[in-house]
Design goal:
Helix content is 23%, strand content 22%. The chain is an alpha+beta fold and 180 residues long. Strand 1 (4-6) and strand 2 (15-20) form a beta hairpin.
């Protein structure tokens, strides 16, 4: 019998809310399909998923989603992550219409603290966009920022030069368009 039971599947079928049977604590389960063969276009390279796991294990910080556990089979890897239920920061701001300067400062401070911590570990996110900046919950009057989705993140080694064409096309800067 699995230690987790599925509850309230929402959105697509990639991330599901699951609850630990013993404690009742809820988590987010991120299901990552693994490529069946090198020439397959479906799924992810196992090495890329392993890199995401290594990075999440290295960056435990209050403003970065926490990795609790990993389950794997030949066909998929399931990341058990902190449940971040407050929605996207972008949606929060759009709903509110007026964001106080003090609130904006607090959000920016938390984003920069999370990024600063990652960068101190020589890790870059490479897919930072409004959809990947979440709020910890909906009930707190001052929710915490949580950076999510480290599938494109990279840990740099001394003297390494890095070039990549990955990322979200709408968010690629003009200086990077020569790579597309």
């Amino acid at each position: 019998r699995p230690a987790f039971r599925e509850r309230n599947v929402s959105g697509g079928n990639e991330v599901r809310r699951v609850c630990e049977r013993a404690s009742g604590t809820c988590w987010a389960a991120k299901f990552l399909k693994i490529r069946k063969s090198a020439c397959s276009r479906l799924g992810l390279e196992r090495s890329g998923v392993e890199q995401e796991v290594e990075i999440l294990q290295a960056i435990q910080h209050p403003n970065i989603v926490t990795l609790k556990d990993v389950f794997e089979s030949r066909a998929e890897v399931v990341l058990i992550l902190e449940l971040v239920s407050g929605g996207e920061l972008f949606d929060f701001i759009a709903e509110k219409e007026n964001l106080l300067e003090s609130e904006a400062i607090e959000f920016m401070k938390q984003i920069l603290e999370g990024l600063g911590f990652m960068h101190s570990k020589n890790i870059a996110h490479f897919d930072l966009k409004p959809e990947n900046i979440m709020l910890s919950d909906k009930v707190s009057p001052h929710p915490d920022i949580k950076l999510i989705d480290f599938g494109l993140a990279h840990r740099f080694h001394q003297g390494e030069e890095y070039r990549s064409t990955s990322g979200t096309p709408q968010y690629i800067g003009e200086e990077d368009e020569s790579f597309t």
